Amino acid sequence: MAKCHRNSIGSLILDHSPSTNSSGGSHFRLWTAFSASAFRRKIFDAVSCGGSSRYRNHEDEFSSSITASSDTSNITTSATVKSGNINVSEKKPGKARNVKSGKLSDLLSIAEAESEIEMKKKVEALEELKLVVKELQVESETKRKEAACRVRLLSKEDASARANLALLGAIPPLVGMLDAEDVESQIASLYALLNLGIGNDANKAAIVKAGAVHKMLKIIESPSPPNPSVSEAIVANFLGLSALDANKPIIGSSGAIPFLVNALEDLDHKSSLQSKQDALRALYNLSIFSSNVSFMLETNLIPFLMNMLGDMEISERILSILSNVASTPEGRKAISSMPDAFSILIDVLNWNDSPGCQEKASYILMVMAHKAYGDRQAMIEAGIVSSLLELTLLGSTLAQKRASRILEFLRVDKGKQVSENYGGNLCAAVSAPIYGSSSSSTNPNGVSRESLEEAEGMMSEEKKAVKQLVQQSLQHNMRKIVKRANLPQDFVPSEHFKALTSSSTSKSLPF
């Protein structure tokens, strides 16, 4: 009972001074320094003799509430002690704050529980990855194959799983599985390696470093032809690995390019459409590294690509490869030696529905025209001038710039040729007035009138072509305007408009 005496109500401080407003007797008045809530807890402790654990350890809170109550003016407390019964009534403005504190604590508890659940899931996922990598290293070929299939699924769409599997050591055993004679094991390991390299350059480098390129070529070069599914998986892996710049020289010099060219040509009709597309994209990746161009020229790639340029679905990618090939001297020589190569590329310039093809074809022609005089002459003979003039009017902005650049190269060559033919006095002859009678056949500079007329005729051919193209362009635009205005399709422009188009010229062209 000692504890009860310690919590006795006798420890309260009461004011025994009589009330001035009372006619008789004295009343007890609670000292104003106490708060109502603290007083109630104290009374409850005294009555219950410490029976409730909720109110046992509130001495510090009681002391702080005493200090805080001195600044509170809106708390009213009345206490009446009658025959051992105590009644307390109070107003508590801090109730809303306590409710908010309770909600905040509940939210914190929920967040903490969710973080614990998330952490538990991560731990479980990591343990699963460890188990899969461990099964890749067992002796049972069946379990290794199942583990490789599991790696393929886990790393298909999970970037963190790819990184963790590589860190746990999944790549070396998967590469080692390529030595297996079982086709299913080879396919499982190839697609597992393919998924591990998706979007992860470190894994791509690690796969090549582990010897995957050598082992894939070993499968290709085996006496018995590889399974078509295995070949398709190998092509897909070469595509993924060749996306890393550091792998391009390794793959290019390994002997993979002839295999990719054979998969693209598909002479034995065993490659799927997806495999052909992957081979073409892989060859483009490899062509970015200029040293690989020489390996490509040892195959039948350039003639095959030139013949395939009519296929609009792949023409732009073909032109991308040819652009990289044309960046090397031996590549330009291989392209120019192809029969009808310039005719084919010039035809591409007229593909108004494909600006990308026009831009890439004009780039190839621009590079070749800049580097070799003989190629410029072959372009002129193939009729490139009219196509370039049309491109400067109707092509995209980039195609127009490249076409104008090619025309500049051709104009310089033509000026030199005319100057050499007439002893270098053409400019003086053209600019000087002609003296003498109309029967005179020579001018003071010694150049015959027939020669001048021939030179002027040669220089005006381009102007005539430009004039014709401008007229065609204006008429084409007029047809578009008529169509937008919903006018009849047989609408005939006025004679005034025809007169305007016949007299229009373009001063922005180089000629």
Overview of the molecule:
This protein is an all-alpha fold. It has a domain at 110-338: Alpha Horseshoe (Leucine-rich Repeat Variant). The protein is built from 26 helices and 4 strands. The chain has a two-stranded antiparallel ribbon with strand order 1-2. A two-stranded antiparallel sheet has the order 3-4. Helix 13 (256-265) crosses helix 14 and helix 20 crosses helix 21. It is flat.
Could you give a quick summary of the protein structure above?
Residues 104-399 form the U-box domain. By secondary structure, the protein is mainly alpha-helical.
Give me some keywords for this one:
ARM-like, 511 residues, Leucine-rich Repeat Variant, coiled coil, mainly alpha, disordered N terminus, 3% strand, single chain, 4 strands, flat, two-stranded antiparallel sheet, disordered C terminus, 66% helix
